[in-house]
Structure formats: structure tokens, C-alpha cells
Design a protein that fits this description.
- By secondary structure, the protein is an alpha/beta fold.
- It folds into two domains: 160 residues, NAD(P)-binding Rossmann-like Domain (Rossmann fold); 122 residues, N-(1-d-carboxylethyl)-l-norvaline Dehydrogenase, domain 2, CATH 1.10.1040.10.
- The chain contains 13 helices and nine strands.
- The protein has a six-stranded parallel sheet with strand order 3-2-1-4-5-6, sandwiched between helices. Strands 7-8-9 form a three-stranded mixed sheet.
- The longest helix has 29 residues.
- The termini are far apart.
């Protein structure tokens, strides 16, 4: 199958490599041409425009950094939808809001194409080994058509309902990611300041009811103090928390912990931590407590 992939970032690049390794013909497009060249060396076919990528593919996937970029790539005057072929399936793996997802789906329908919102979770490690969680909303028949492709990249791949439902499930996931990140930092700091060893706190709590994926993921970073944002950045979680707030307001569902977490992440970003790992949410708490993990 001829596939297009737009967005060769931290997640999109390894996802594209898996598709190539599975034997698919993959046309790629990205702002950074070095990444296009790198993928070309692995067998991908470079394209110079979105129009070109639509002309040669049956399915186009995107994995983009923010709402603005998604809307530009899909809805721009020379974007994917403006150049879509009849029956083409467009899949967005980005994390955006319901409004953006609906606009893309409506535009694709008018163009005679299909749109699936299929955000992903699992980080760069699971994007590399093909074990992502992929939550997909949209037309079930289209989902069934592309399921073999999604299975190349994901270990847990599910159709969760109509347009927007994939986006909603991803935002629920990110709500918990944000809250649990703040909670893990708060808990580890509290225990350490009370005299317990941070590593032992993690080792014990992570076998009890207080365990969580973000506790396991972030404790290692907080204890080692390796806050460089190589795998993820605090600004990404902040962006997602803003989208969650927008969704909660739209459907009138209370998110008191989400609102508090959003505020703490805003403050952290404004203090210059936005490019650090999300676990750096610990640092303002340390300042407030006048105590640091050791």
C-alpha cells in the first residue's frame, strides 16, 4: 500500500521507520529537509508539497506538534484536504482539540475523503518498537481498512467511536498524565522531606495502591535529576492541559484537579521550565519547600 506520512518528529520518525520495515511504500513530507533525506536513505520517497503526497498515496498519516500546525496542514489553501483524492483516508495521530478534529473531518467529507482521529500514547520508546496505544475515532469501515497499518505501529489499537472520540480518549489520557505527574512530584518530595529515601519511596509505593505509570516514569528522572527534555517536554503537557480545559468547558464537565494542574504547569513554563522534561514540575515544589531530592 502507498502511504503518505507528514511530520517526522520524535514520534512520526520512528512510526515511519516501522511502516518502511513492514514493506510499505512511504512518501514523506516534513519541514526539516534533513529528516526527509534521512528517511530517503532508508527507502522512503521524498515529496516537496502536500499536493504531491496526495497524488501518490491511498492513505496519509500525520503526526504534528500542535493545533496550529494540524490546521495548516489539513485545512490550508494548499493543504491535504484541498488536494485530497476521492476515497483517500486521512489519519491524524496528533493531539488536538475536538474543534480541530471536527473541522478536519468535515473538510475531508466535502472533498470526498475520509478522516480518522487516531491520537497515540506511549512515548518515543514505544513509537520505536511498535507498541503504541492508538485510539481511533471516525468511520468504522475506514478504520478496518487501515487497521493492518495501525497494527504495525501499535500494540493496543481500538476503534472507540465516531469522529472526535479518539481525540476525547487521548485528552482523558493526558488529563491523567498531567495530574499524576504533579502528584508524583508532590508525593516524592513530601516523603523525602519527612526523612525517607526517595528511591525506597518509589520502590515501595510502586508495589502498592499508589502506583501509577507516571510515578514509575517520572521518579527515575526526578531522583537522577536528569531533567533534559530529550524524550518529552513540559510545554507539550501544558498544551494538552489547555485542550482538556477547552473540552471540559465545552461539555460542562468539572475538572478541579485538571484546573489546578494546568495552573501549576503554566507557572512552571513561565519560570523557564517549558523545554525540560514534564517531571521538572518538581522544581517549583522544591523551591516552595526549600528542600531538594538527593
Amino acid at each position: 500500500m502507498n502511504i503518505g506520512f507528514v511530520g517526522l518528529g520524535r514520534m512520526g520518525l520512528p512510526m515511519t521507520k516501522l511502516l518502511l520495515a513492514a514493506g510499505h511504500t512511504v512518501y514523506v513530507n516534513n519541514r526539516s529537509q534533513q529528516k526527509v533525506r534521512d528517511m530517503t536513505e532508508l527507502g522512503a520517497i521524498p515529496t516537496t508539497s502536500l499536493k504531491e503526497i496526495t497524488e501518490h498515496t491511498e492513505v496519509i498519516m500525520t503526526c504534528l506538534p500542535d493545533v496550529k500546525t494540524v490546521e495548516e496542514i489539513f485545512l490550508g489553501n494548499d493543504g491535504l484536504i484541498a488536494n485530497a483524492q476521492n476515497g483517500q483516508i486521512l489519519i491524524d495521530h496528533s493531539t488536538v482539540g475536538i474543534k480541530t478534529t471536527n473541522l478536519c473531518a468535515e473538510g475531508a467529507e466535502k472533498a470526498g475523503a475520509k478522516f480518522l482521529d487516531a491520537p497515540i500514547s506511549g512515548g518515543t520508546e514505544r513509537a520505536s518498537d511498535g507498541t503504541l496505544t492508538i485510539m481511533c475515532g471516525g468511520d468504522k469501515e475506514s478504520f478496518d481498512t487501515v487497521l493492518p497499518l495501525l497494527d504495525v505501529m501499535g500494540q493496543t489499537v481500538q476503534h472507540v467511536g465516531p469522529t472526535g472520540s479518539g481525540t476525547a480518549v487521548k485528552l482523558v489520557n493526558q488529563l491523567l498524565v498531567g495530574i499524576h505527574s504533579l502528584a508524583a512530584a508532590e508525593a516524592l518530595l513530601l516523603g523525602a522531606k519527612a526523612g525517607a529515601d526517595p528511591q525506597q519511596i518509589f520502590d515501595l509505593v510502586n508495589t502498592g495502591w499508589g502506583q501509577s505509570f507516571m510515578l514509575a516514569r517520572n521518579s527515575e528522572v526526578m531522583i537522577s535529576r536528569q531533567f533534559e527534555g530529550d524524550r518529552a517536554q513540559l510545554r507539550v503537557i501544558l498544551k494538552d492541559l489547555g485542550l482538556i480545559k477547552e473540552l471540559a468547558d465545552t461539555v460542562e464537565s468539572p475538572t478541579p484537579l485538571g484546573n489546578l494542574t494546568l495552573q501549576r504547569f503554566i507557572e512552571a513554563a513561565e519560570s523557564g521550565l517549558d523545554e525540560l522534561d514534564p517531571s521538572a514540575i518538581l522544581l517549583p515544589l522544591e523551591d516552595e519547600s526549600n528542600f531538594k531530592l538527593h
